[in-house]
């Protein structure tokens, strides 16, 4: 092993450790890896940031924008409306929800498809009297399987296509992945629909604020007596006068009921406040203000909502700005205009002080905020509403236009008329010009952490190859496979990629494994295509943990899942994927 190989291995090992640790987000870790490789001389400084102009990076961003145009047109909502015909049979419900997300994920951003179908799945389960955990894990796993269907199904497919070009081949076509991907998806769908959902834990997490959140555990009614020293002062003055942590969520002043009253509203004698605070802070608040406990329940939970204010449940997404921070440090009321009413994790309502809860991906939050602006606020915060909104009816003209633009991009790539990055950048621009989405929505639809990850890790992956590190790992894997036929190292590449994708972002797994797979094929003097296909399948098979993919993390809170629940269905599903994919790869992509 040379010195350069030892250094690149050390950088990648540290990067993997930080990826799994999760203390810093994967885009920051990838940038640190790129800087380290550049500083030690493995990546030339003038080439350090060329990865951000890589065709794979451009294509991923363009597909995300075009997917948002499809969502905005209402075409996906129309398809989601078909789910109402699934009936009450759990097998039919699982098959329909998993089948639909699989189809959608083959052609658009799977997180976008999840965002639409997650609340639909929750309400479908509740109407049938079943816990959402029955449907949500199949939903997440179906999103992975759908990514195998086409070139644009998931970022790893696009990445692998560019590696093929760099090694003297033609880029993969739009449907080159379909023979293997379709077979694996059908096998996975059959398994999930008939057997897999029965292996999921029946977590009692109804994802309904009436049952998941016991709001009375947080809220207390206080009355402003005549003799209170702060009577007549504004809420802001009361807040400054007390050392307690609290927030006022409702107010009864005479006959007027106010949800989330203004900080400048004066508190007059006889007013009733609905306050969120724990026992210790409540005592401090009463001592500081002279207010007293109300003698009877007069407000109730209904005061939390009004024509202007709404109480809704949301899921913290994996890229949310809330992760690792508390409501207190974020100053949520003043910065975003929302009040935190409750937090649930793994289906259990947290009882600790709300202001001090450090948010995690998959947490379910009960928020009170302005009804008109809440969707925009949640988008800024990186949260997904769980409430099933009314489906967009979708104007036929907009639906036809969006499908025509998106379909044209697919066809131009399928017939080799344009490279995929040009076709989908063109489709994105046309959708903006046609009014299917505005520029703000276009920029918001791009998953910037994944873009940073790809732009940073591509030069690092090239350093792994140029130093001979990829060849060294490939030689070791061939040695472990015992010199058998190419099928054995092919299966080994698939299994290692699967393992990596369960721990790190699937795009990172593909970037790291592609040069190793190519190295194995070169040592054996066989085609690189079957080994690249093995990486594709493995990168879309993150079924064992909630941290391997955004879809897995998004369902963790609403489904009430625990970390160890995923392998119950995920492990046998991975076995099914290996059994089906290896023969299909060797048939359609011979050595």
Polypeptide structure, described:
There is one protein chain. The strands form 2 sheets. This protein has a 5-stranded antiparallel beta sheet, with no helix packed on it. A 5-stranded antiparallel beta sheet has the order 8-7-9-6-10. It has helices at residues 3-21, 26-39, 55-73, 75-81, 90-105, 110-127, 133-146, 155-166, 178-199, 235-241, 279-289, 327-330, 332-336, 374-381, 396-414, 420-433, 439-445, 448-466, 469-480, 487-501, 506-524, 529-539, 550-559, 566-588; strands at 219-223, 247-253, 256-259, 272-276, 292-293, 309-316, 339-345, 348-349, 364-370, 383-385. Helix 3 (55-73) runs antiparallel to helix 18 (448-466) and helix 20 (487-501) packs antiparallel against helix 21 (506-524). It is elongated and about 90 Å long. It is an alpha+beta fold. The chain is built from 24 helices and 10 strands. A hairpin with a 2-residue loop joins strand 7 (339-345) and strand 8 (348-349).
């Amino acid at each position: 092993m040379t010195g350069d190989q030892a250094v690149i291995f050390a950088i990648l090992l540290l990067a993997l450790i930080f990826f799994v640790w999760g203390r810093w987000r994967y885009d920051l870790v990838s940038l640190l890896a790129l800087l380290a490789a550049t500083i030690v001389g493995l990546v030339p400084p003038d080439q350090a940031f060329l990865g951000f102009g890589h065709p794979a990076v451009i294509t991923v961003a363009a597909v995300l924008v075009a997917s948002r145009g499809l969502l905005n047109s209402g075409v996906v909502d129309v398809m989601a409306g078909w789910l109402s015909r699934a009936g009450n049979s759990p097998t039919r419900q699982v098959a329909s929800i998993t089948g639909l997300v699989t189809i959608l994920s083959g052609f658009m951003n799977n997180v976008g498809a999840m965002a639409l179908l997650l609340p639909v799945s929750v309400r479908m389960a509740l109407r049938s009297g079943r816990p959402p955990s029955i449907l949500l894990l199949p939903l997440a796993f179906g999103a992975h399987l759908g990514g195998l269907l086409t070139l644009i199904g998931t970022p790893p497919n696009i990445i692998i296509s560019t590696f093929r070009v760099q090694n003297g081949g033609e880029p993969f076509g739009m449907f080159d992945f379909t023979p293997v991907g379709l077979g694996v998806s059908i096998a996975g769908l059959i398994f999930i629909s008939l057997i897999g959902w029965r292996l999921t834990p029946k977590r009692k997490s109804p994802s309904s604020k009436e049952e998941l959140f016991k709001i009375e555990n947080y809220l207390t009614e206080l009355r402003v007596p005549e003799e209170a020293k702060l009577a007549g002062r504004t809420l802001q003055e009361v807040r400054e006068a007390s050392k307690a942590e609290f927030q006022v969520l409702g107010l009864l002043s005479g006959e007027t009921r106010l949800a989330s009253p203004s900080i400048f509203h004066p508190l007059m004698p006889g007013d009733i406040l609905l306050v969120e605070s724990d026992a210790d802070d409540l005592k401090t608040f009463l001592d500081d203000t002279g207010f007293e406990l109300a003698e009877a329940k007069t407000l109730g939970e209904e005061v939390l909502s009004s024509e202007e204010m709404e109480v809704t449940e949301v899921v913290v997404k994996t890229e949310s700005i809330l992760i690792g921070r508390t409501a207190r440090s974020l100053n949520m009321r003043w910065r975003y205009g929302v009040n935190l009413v409750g937090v649930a994790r793994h289906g259990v309502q947290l009882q600790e002080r709300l202001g001090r809860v450090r948010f995690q991906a998959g947490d379910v939050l009960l928020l009170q905020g302005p009804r008109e602006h809440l969707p925009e606020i949640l988008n800024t915060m990186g949260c997904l509403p769980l409430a099933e909104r009314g489906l967009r009816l979708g104007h036929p003209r907009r639906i036809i236009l969006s499908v025509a633009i998106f379909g044209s991009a697919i066809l131009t790539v399928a017939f080799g008329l344009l490279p995929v990055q040009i076709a989908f950048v063109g489709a994105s621009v046309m959708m903006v010009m046609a009014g299917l989405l505005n520029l703000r929505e276009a920029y918001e639809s791009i998953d910037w952490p994944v873009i940073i990850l790809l732009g940073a890790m591509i030069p690092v992956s090239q350093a792994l190859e140029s130093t001979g590190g990829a060849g060294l790992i490939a030689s070791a894997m061939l040695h472990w496979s015992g010199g058998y036929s190419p099928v054995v190292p092919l299966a080994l590449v698939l299994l290692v990629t699967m393992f990596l994708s369960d721990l790190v972002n699937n795009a990172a797994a593909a970037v790291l494994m592609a040069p190793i797979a190519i190295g194995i094929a070169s040592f054996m003097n066989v085609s690189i295509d079957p080994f690249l296909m093995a990486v594709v399948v493995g990168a879309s098979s993150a079924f064992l943990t909630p941290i391997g993919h955004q879809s897995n993390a998004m369902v963790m809170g609403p489904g009430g899942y625990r970390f160890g629940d995923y392998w119950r269905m995920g492990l046998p599903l991975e076995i099914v994927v290996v059994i089906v994919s290896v023969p299909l790869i060797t048939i359609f992509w011979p050595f």
